[in-house]
Amino acid sequence: MARKIIIDTDPGQDDAVALLLALASPELEVLGITCVAGNVPLPLTTRNARIVAELAGKPVRVFAGCEAPMQRPLVTAEAVHGKTGLDGADLPEPTRPLAPGHAVDFIIDTLRAEAPGTVTLCPLGPLTNIATALTRAPDIAARIRQIVLMGGAYFEVGNITPAAEFNIYVDPEAADIVMKSGIDLIMASLDVTHKVLTTRARVEAIRAIGTRVGSVVADWLGFFERFDEAKYGTEGAPLHDPCVIAWLLRPELFSGRRINVEVETASPLTLGMTVADWWRVTDRAPNATFLGGVDAEGFYTLLTERLARL
Ligand code: RIB
Ligand code: CA
Q: Which of 73, 86, 111, 223 is the most exposed, having the fewest neighbouring CB atoms within 10 Å of its CB?
């Protein structure tokens, strides 16, 4: 029985690779893709998600969600992802329309329709859609199997500010709602994503698949990595969002701790910081499995093998 998931996303080249990994993996049943404003505004994240679904050749429904954070103006990341959010490869505009209805309603309705504890939410962007759904329909919290998200940082500190990771920073109030929801949370933080760099050899192995998907992904990564290579002086960039899907497929590739994680929502200096009690120096109750380690070669072997299936 395939694991039922909803992927909430703000494509973004790394989101796109995560979507392809999920759509290529028979262990997962993608019930729908819900889009949120983040890397680029909502009209582009919905366009990009539809492009990826059609590139994968999968008839998965794509829904438009929240176009702005719950209480703050949107912050985007075109400097990283380009003006379309999916720069690097020339792909045709999507032909299949958006699914009707709001993404938040799809999340609520799906969780109420499916058996309790059978649907996993996989947020890859700001948590606005997820938190809005939890606020509008508190009953769904008990029906969610797990939330496996990309977000936060501790040892790696911030990437959008010195203190905060982008997904959390864009909508810290939404992240606070999710962190306090009581739902079983798995956090693929920068602490783990910064250990899976898109090195030359790894990108060329993807291109060597020899398919259109392999070529497109290699081209996306060639564009996506330039910002972080210049910033960090590394060969390659962190491939953030596919870590969420890889954890679902092969959790043994990752390591982490169940600890308390809280989000700063007030301080202008540290807004969006995930305060992770990694050393358990407080008596705050653990609320998340915070990932910190990963077998990077195993991750790329899995990713490359699965992309070759599309
Ligand atoms: O900080 C990395 C995260 O922000 C990733 O999800 C990337 O796609 C951007 O949304
Ligand atoms: Ca993302």
A: 73
In this predicted structure, what is the pLDDT of residue 301?
Answer: 98
Instruction: For residue 3, give both structure tokens.
Output: 């694991």
List, for residues 120-134, the tens digit of each pLDDT value: 999 999 999 999 999
Question: Does the annotation count 102 as an active-site position?
Answer: no
Tokens of residue 44, six digits: 């582009």
| Ligand 1 pocket test, candidate residues 7, 9, 10, 74, most atoms within 8 A of CB | 10
Identify the nearest ligand to the CA of 150 by its number. 1
Question: Would you say 80 and 229 are in contact if contact means Cβ atoms under 8 Å apart?
Answer: no
- Residue positions counted in the chain: 310
201-230 pLDDT, tens digit per residue, is 999 999 999 999 999 999 999 999 999 999
* Cβ-based burial of 97 (10 A; exposed 0-12, middle 13-18, buried ≥19): exposed
* Domain 3-307 fold: Inosine-uridine Nucleoside N-ribohydrolase; Chain A (3.90.245)
Instruction: Find the distance separating the first CA and the last CA of the chain, reported in whole Å.
Output: 21
Ligand 1 mean position, distance from CA 78 (Å)? 12
**In the chain, what are the domain boundaries?**
3-307
**Residue ranges of the chain whose pLDDT lies below 70:** none
Residue of 189, 196, 190, 185 lying closest to 288 (CA atoms): 185
Q: E strands within the chain? A: 3-9, 28-35, 62-64, 119-123, 144-150, 185-188, 254-259, 261-263, 274-276, 288-294
What is the DSSP code (8-state) at residue 272?
T
Angle at 130 between CA 242 and CA 149, to 5 degrees: 25
Expressed in angstroms and rounded, the spacing between residue 283 Cα and the centre of ligand 2 is 32
pTM above 0.85, yes or no: yes
CA–CA separation, 92 vs 44, rounded Å?
Answer: 14
